[in-house]
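Much of our argument rests on the idea that a fold can be written as discrete symbols. This step matters because it turns folding into a mapping between discrete strings. The record that follows shows the chain in one-letter code together with its fold in token form.
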Amino acid sequence: MNIKHEAPLIKKSRLENEVILAVVILYVLLSAALLLIHHMQPDEVETQTSSTSPAHEHFSSTASRPSAAAPDGVQPGPSVDELLAQEGYRDVRGLTEQGDKYHALAIREGVKWKVEVDVRTRSIAATPAAAH
């Protein structure tokens, strides 16, 4: 004897349908906004990504001490803050001095970086900051 038991149909509540519809509408709106932002960007501007690769960046530049006095009578260059700004770093926080090096946290291209400015070699080394 072959008896089939059919499972009872479960009806979705009105609230579940409204939530599903709201999620779909939100997805469409966000997609449209991102597409609009992409098309509004000028052609000569390079598109930025959220990739943290490479994991370590090194920038050579013309840094000097943040004070007005420079060693050996050399004209002072840009301050550490100005140097970081020239290299695209914004929102510099916690700038501390350790000998000829300065350490801080800064934002560049939407990524938080631990930066180290070496005033002797006049360079910046940056490593992505761990997300907290």
In short: The longest strand covers residues 90-98. The chain has two domains: 13-44, 57-128. Strands lie at 57-60, 90-98, 101-108, 111-118, 123-128.
